[in-house]
């Protein structure tokens, strides 16, 4: 195929070739060959015209292949070499134009240029052209430089359209060239600057299409230069820069570079007062940025600069000031923002919820954009609502209303995410569950259970499991056929749905009507199936369902009499290797063993009649009340007895308070000591860290100096290389000059070299002087900095010492004040005890007088006495009925309080403890609430049995005697859980108060739950004491019932036995509590002792009696030790001194054991002294006579009550 010229160009070529025919050597060649030959002509004008015609000839696409075959690509590339731009720049301009035409017509030509190493040549040309355009030579036209540079950039853009070329072009060196072009500034010719920047940006964008090139682009510093173009006055450059950054954000390292150069802030600035297309592209770039944790963390830490402007894109309400596309894209940004689990809590606190809710509320679902917006919004809300603070505010900020609204939309994906959000919103706070129930959320979730989408069903079931923990929702779920739905879920093959069905059934079975309906509808077969399942999780849920079902007496009747496989299955699980299954099975079996009535027919009608009956009885009491003297006397005696008992209890309570105050003081002192130790450790740690930091700073400074030296050496090396390159180019230019000018130019060159050398030497000398000055200045600054740090450290140590002394003085004052308060309290208690003894004597004398008067009256009127006896028996029967009613009401209220603790506090906290951001640990929850859940289960059954028995008696019109003593005897089965709870109560309340003070989230949770109207202003701390008060309350009520029950009544003996059993249980629990407190006191003392403490010091039988600051010594009365402290135990006296360096701790000195042969005698030679004669004699000196009296009395009391272990021969331990 021959080379073709268009008609106009052909005429010009023919005329040109005719004019220069004398210079043509290849007369028979084609026009192209002749033009190529003329390129070597000595006449520059011929060269220029030949190159121009060859270049313009390639404008025609039909020459793309023949030009390559004729070697024009190589010829053009040879003339594009940087060495040509000084001598023949017009040739370079036309050669670059020819390459541009050829590359634009054919991918083969693009590849051929790359194969000829043309890419490196072109970028070298660009580098030199940029240098030239900044400082144009005098003999070169600037227009030629600009034109050549523009065409070369166009060539780069065209070559970068081929994938293989992009891979070769993406070197760091090439990006450095492009970065220089992007940074080009020419204030005097702004159009030129914008033209160069626009083309360089387009070339960079094309090259960066290849993903691997983005890293080299970042290394070359292109990112920083592109961001500067965001502020260009040319919109196309702004758009190109934004697209460039958008492409770069898919690479991790580029995102890091963007953060470093404040690129996030720049992208955010493009969201305001910009066309929608620009804002959309900026949001897309931001969306890519937020895929990594570092960007999210950076944004959260700079909320005002980054997050707030993004949030401002949201409209104040749907349809106001924000298009759907923009809203969809900003939601994509936020969706990525909340994807980092560890930072989602910080994002939630940034106010995003208050932006999303109004922006999407009321949005219809009419197109795919709406679908996308609603799906993203529901996903975001589903993640954010896992945060506790969001849950707490979910009702107030309308989030719950929005979710309930969106869950009704006709989109399975939206409903699925909304159901997930409702499930995430409801594990902890009852007010959230209640609000969802009020807005019909329970019914909506029940309807979702019928959908075919398994994931949607799963999320709806999760929501219902949590919603059912609210009393009103529980009833609504039951009314919405929640039982049937839970059974249907259990029968599904998917394990997760089956498990959710069992959990839903567990929560529903807490409802009285639901659990009775479940058993009556044959649901026990499902429970049995769960119990015999091979899956331990299903077995555990089955045992929980059985436990809840057995709370109702009528269910216990059905489960014991009509489900023969149920109890054997539970017994088999009672030996399970899984601890939870074993424990829950035992609880279920224990519930099933509780008594139940033989018939429950007619009891349902008694529900409404019970309150009327109780009220009518009290009304009749008021109407039939008579002024009976004997009954009045009995009441008076009872009141006086109650006053006396109350006084004794008051004294005991004061003693208990004083003991607790002593313990509190000891605990505070221990905590203060621990705090001081921690402060000392922290101080040492700070000093060590400061020293490490100082050394690290020194190392960093050394490294910085070395790095600066390396950089300077590298700069010097580059400068020398550049100088050599300039010299080489200069020499080539010199060779081309005429021979006549050679000598003159050589001399001029030498002169210039000499001047340049002298200037260089002067520059090096000044540079060295400046470096030496900077080094000395830095050394001086470092010296001043070290002196300031030393002075600051000295001042800090002085301040710490001053604060330490002030704290010690304050502690001494507080100890003195506390001891004075304790002495006053002891005096008040003793005075109160004396008053009670005196009142007791007076009361006894008065009772004797009244007894004598009563006997005289009885002898005078036996008929009246008999009448009074009959009236008393009638009154007793009536009182017995009232007491029974009171017992039932007390128990019902008690169970309600226990249920509040479990459902409102314990269960939500346990749920929170399993979350990724627990408010408090599961261990701390167990320590605070102890066995309260087991107690609630026990008393729920006890209350049901008691209520059913009384209802049965009323339903039979009081035909037979009412017997409830056998039910009270079952309280013995509760002893273990009550014992654990009461023993742990003091520690529980202490931990509760400590946690509430130290943990704001826990305190906020408690405060929020306590404000629930269902609690009726009850506080958790007051609720937690109810189990402690319940056993004494049982004793009081049963005693009252026995007093009003005749001995021949069938219930008298069972009640008496029940009373003895409850008293016995209470005694055992109190003893265990005292033993636990004694053991704890021994361990506390042991932890404060240092030295050779006897190995058997902490023994089960040993109990702490008292301690005091009394002097001790040998029998001679010599007291050498300073600051002595003596401890008295029930079989031992230990002598210590205060530790010199550790407050509230002691150094062990001596000890002597108390045995039956030990005696104690007065020691007149010593002030307030006495002597203990045991295996070794020890003398003691007390501060006051009163102290001596108290110590001697306490030691004698210990000798009189020595434990069995002390009866063995013991040898005293010596120092």
Automatic annotation (TrEMBL):
<feature type="repeat" description="ARM">
    <location>
        <begin position="440"/>
        <end position="482"/>
    </location>
</feature>
<feature type="region of interest" description="Disordered">
    <location>
        <begin position="618"/>
        <end position="641"/>
    </location>
</feature>
<dbReference type="InterPro" id="IPR000225">
    <property type="entry name" value="Armadillo"/>
</dbReference>
<dbReference type="GO" id="GO:0005829">
    <property type="term" value="C:cytosol"/>
</dbReference>
<dbReference type="InterPro" id="IPR011989">
    <property type="entry name" value="ARM-like"/>
</dbReference>
<protein>
    <recommendedName>
        <fullName>DH domain-containing protein</fullName>
    </recommendedName>
</protein>
<dbReference type="Pfam" id="PF00514">
    <property type="entry name" value="Arm"/>
</dbReference>
<feature type="compositionally biased region" description="Acidic residues">
    <location>
        <begin position="620"/>
        <end position="632"/>
    </location>
</feature>
<dbReference type="InterPro" id="IPR016024">
    <property type="entry name" value="ARM-type_fold"/>
</dbReference>
<dbReference type="Pfam" id="PF00621">
    <property type="entry name" value="RhoGEF"/>
</dbReference>
<feature type="region of interest" description="Disordered">
    <location>
        <begin position="662"/>
        <end position="797"/>
    </location>
</feature>
<dbReference type="GO" id="GO:0005085">
    <property type="term" value="F:guanyl-nucleotide exchange factor activity"/>
</dbReference>
<dbReference type="InterPro" id="IPR000219">
    <property type="entry name" value="DH_dom"/>
</dbReference>
<feature type="region of interest" description="Disordered">
    <location>
        <begin position="844"/>
        <end position="874"/>
    </location>
</feature>
<feature type="compositionally biased region" description="Basic and acidic residues">
    <location>
        <begin position="844"/>
        <end position="864"/>
    </location>
</feature>
<dbReference type="InterPro" id="IPR051092">
    <property type="entry name" value="FYVE_RhoGEF_PH"/>
</dbReference>
<dbReference type="InterPro" id="IPR001849">
    <property type="entry name" value="PH_domain"/>
</dbReference>
<dbReference type="GO" id="GO:0005737">
    <property type="term" value="C:cytoplasm"/>
</dbReference>
<dbReference type="GO" id="GO:0031156">
    <property type="term" value="P:regulation of sorocarp development"/>
</dbReference>
<dbReference type="InterPro" id="IPR035899">
    <property type="entry name" value="DBL_dom_sf"/>
</dbReference>
<feature type="domain" description="DH">
    <location>
        <begin position="879"/>
        <end position="1072"/>
    </location>
</feature>
<dbReference type="InterPro" id="IPR011993">
    <property type="entry name" value="PH-like_dom_sf"/>
</dbReference>
């Amino acid at each position: 195929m021959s080379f073709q010229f268009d008609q106009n160009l052909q005429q010009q070529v023919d005329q040109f070739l005719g004019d220069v025919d004398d210079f043509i050597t290849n007369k028979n060649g084609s026009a192209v060959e002749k033009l190529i030959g003329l390129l070597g002509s000595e006449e520059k004008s011929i060269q220029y015209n030949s190159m121009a015609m060859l270049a313009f000839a390639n404008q025609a696409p039909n020459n793309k292949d023949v030009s390559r075959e004729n070697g024009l690509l190589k010829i053009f590339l040879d003339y594009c070499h940087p060495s040509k731009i000084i001598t023949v720049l017009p040739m370079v301009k036309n050669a670059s134009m020819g390459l541009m035409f050829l590359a634009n017509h054919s991918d083969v030509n693009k590849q051929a240029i790359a194969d000829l190493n043309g890419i490196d040549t072109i970028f070298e040309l660009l580098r030199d052209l940029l240098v030239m355009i900044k400082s144009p030579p005098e003999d070169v036209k600037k227009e030629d430089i600009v034109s050549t540079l523009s065409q070369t950039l166009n060539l780069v853009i065209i070559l970068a359209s081929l994938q293989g070329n992009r891979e070769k072009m993406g070197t760091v060196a090439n990006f450095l060239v492009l970065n220089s072009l992007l940074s080009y500034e020419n204030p005097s010719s702004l159009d030129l600057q914008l033209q160069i920047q626009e083309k360089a940006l387009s070339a960079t964008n094309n090259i960066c299409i290849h993903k691997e090139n983005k890293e080299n682009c970042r290394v070359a510093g292109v990112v920083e230069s592109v961001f500067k173009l965001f502020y260009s006055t040319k919109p196309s450059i702004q758009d190109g820069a934004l697209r460039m950054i958008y492409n770069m954000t898919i690479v991790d390292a580029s995102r890091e570079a963007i953060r470093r150069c404040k690129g996030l802030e720049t992208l955010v600035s493009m969201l305001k007062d910009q066309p929608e297309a620009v804002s959309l592209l900026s949001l897309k770039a931001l969306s890519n940025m937020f895929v990594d944790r570092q960007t999210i963390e950076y944004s959260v830490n700079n909320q005002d600069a980054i997050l707030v402007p993004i949030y401002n894109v949201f409209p104040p309400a749907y349809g106001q000031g924000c298009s759907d596309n923009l809203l969809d894209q900003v939601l994509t940004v936020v969706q990525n923002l909340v994807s980092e689990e560890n930072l989602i809590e910080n994002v939630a606190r940034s106010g995003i919820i208050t932006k999303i809710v109004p922006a999407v509320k009321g949005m219809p679902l009419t197109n795919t954009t709406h679908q996308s917006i609603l799906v993203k919004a529901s996903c975001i809300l589903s993640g954010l609502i896992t945060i506790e603070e969001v849950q707490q505010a979910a009702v107030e900020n309308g989030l719950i209303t929005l979710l309930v609204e969106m869950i009704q939309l006709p989109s399975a994906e939206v409903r699925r995410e909304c159901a997930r959000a409702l499930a995430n919103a409801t594990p902890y706070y009852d007010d959230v569950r209640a609000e969802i129930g009020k807005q019909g959320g329970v019914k909506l979730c029940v309807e979702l259970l019928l959908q075919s989408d398994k994931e949607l069903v799963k999320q709806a079931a999760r929501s219902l499991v949590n919603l059912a923990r609210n009393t009103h929702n529980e009833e609504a779920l039951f009314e919405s056929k929640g039982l049937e739905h839970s059974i249907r879920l259990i029968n599904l093959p998917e394990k997760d749905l089956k498990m959710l069905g069992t959990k839903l059934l567990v929560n529903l079975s807490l409802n009285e009507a639901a659990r009775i309906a479940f058993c009556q509808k044959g649901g026990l077969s499902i429970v049995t199936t769960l119990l015999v399942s091979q899956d331990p999780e299903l077995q555990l849920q089955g045992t929980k369902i059985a436990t809840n079902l057995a709370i109702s007496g009528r269910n216990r009747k059905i489960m014991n009499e009509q489900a023969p496989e149920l109890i054997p299955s539970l017994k088999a699980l009672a030996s399970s290797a899984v601890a939870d299954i074993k424990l829950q099975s035992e609880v279920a079996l224990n519930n099933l063993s509780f008594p139940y009535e033989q018939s429950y027919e007619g009891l349902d009608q008694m529900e409404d009649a019970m309150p009327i009956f109780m009220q009518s009885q009290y009304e009749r009491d008021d109407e039939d009340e008579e002024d009976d003297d004997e009954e009045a006397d009995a009441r008076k005696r009872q009141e006086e007895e109650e006053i006396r008992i109350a006084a004794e209890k008051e004294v005991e309570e004061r003693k208990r308070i004083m003991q607790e105050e002593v313990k509190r003081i000891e605990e505070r002192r221990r905590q203060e000591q621990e705090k001081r130790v921690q402060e000392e450790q922290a101080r040492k740690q700070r000093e060590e860290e400061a020293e490490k930091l100082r050394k690290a700073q020194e190392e960093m400074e050394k490294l910085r100096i070395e790095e600066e030296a390396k950089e300077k050496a590298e700069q010097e090396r580059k400068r020398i290389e550049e100088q050599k390159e300039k010299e080489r180019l200069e020499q080539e230019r010199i060779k081309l000059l005429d021979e006549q000018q050679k000598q003159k130019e050589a001399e001029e060159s030498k002169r210039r070299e000499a001047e340049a050398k002298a200037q260089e030497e002067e520059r090096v000398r000044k540079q060295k002087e400046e470096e030496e000055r900077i080094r000395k200045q830095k050394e001086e600054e470092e010296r001043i900095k070290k002196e300031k740090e030393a002075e600051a450290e000295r001042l800090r140590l002085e301040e710490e010492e001053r604060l330490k002394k002030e704290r010690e003085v304050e502690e001494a004052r507080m100890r003195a004040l506390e001891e004075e308060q304790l002495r006053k309290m002891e005096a008040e208690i003793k005075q109160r005890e004396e008053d009670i003894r005196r009142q007791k004597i007076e009361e006894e004398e008065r009772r004797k007088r009244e007894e004598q008067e009563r006997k005289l009256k009885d002898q005078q009127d036996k008929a009246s006495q008999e009448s009074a006896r009959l009236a008393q028996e009638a009154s007793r029967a009536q009182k017995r009925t009232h007491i029974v009613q009171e017992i039932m009401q007390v128990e019902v209220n008690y169970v309600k309080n226990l249920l509040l603790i479990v459902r409102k506090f314990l269960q939500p906290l346990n749920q929170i403890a399993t979350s990724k951001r627990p408010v408090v640990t599961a261990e701390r929850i167990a320590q605070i609430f102890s066995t309260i859940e087991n107690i609630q289960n026990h008393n729920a059954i006890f209350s049901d049995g008691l209520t059913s028995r009384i209802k049965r008696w009323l339903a039979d019109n009081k035909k037979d005697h009412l017997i409830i003593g056998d039910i009270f005897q079952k309280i013995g089965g509760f002893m273990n859980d009550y014992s654990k709870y009461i023993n742990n109560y003091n520690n529980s309340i202490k931990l509760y108060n400590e946690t509430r003070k130290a943990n704001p989230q826990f305190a906020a949770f408690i405060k929020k739950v306590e404000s629930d109207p269902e609690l009726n202003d009850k506080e958790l701390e007051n609720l937690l004491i109810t189990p402690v008060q319940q056993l004494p309350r049982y004793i009081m009520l049963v005693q009252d019932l026995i007093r009003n029950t005749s001995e021949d009544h069938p219930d008298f003996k069972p009640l008496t036995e029940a009373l003895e059993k409850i008293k016995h249980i209470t005694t055992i629990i109190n003893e265990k509590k005292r033993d636990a407190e004694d053991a704890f006191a021994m361990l506390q003392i042991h932890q404060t002792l240092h030295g050779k403490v006897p190995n058997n010091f902490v023994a089960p039988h040993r109990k702490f009696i008292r301690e005091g600051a009394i002097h001790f010594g040998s029998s001679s009365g010599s007291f050498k030790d300073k600051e002595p402290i003596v401890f008295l135990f029930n079989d031992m006296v230990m002598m210590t001194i205060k530790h010199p360096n550790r407050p509230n701790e002691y150094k062990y000195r001596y000890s002597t054991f108390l045995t039956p042969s030990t005696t104690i005698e007065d020691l007149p030679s010593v002030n307030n002294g006495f002597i203990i004669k045991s295996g070794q004699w020890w003398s003691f000196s007390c501060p006051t006579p009163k102290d001596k009296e108290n110590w001697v009395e306490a030691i004698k009391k210990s000798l009189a009550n020595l434990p069995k272990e002390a009866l063995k021969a013991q040898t005293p331990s010596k120092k």
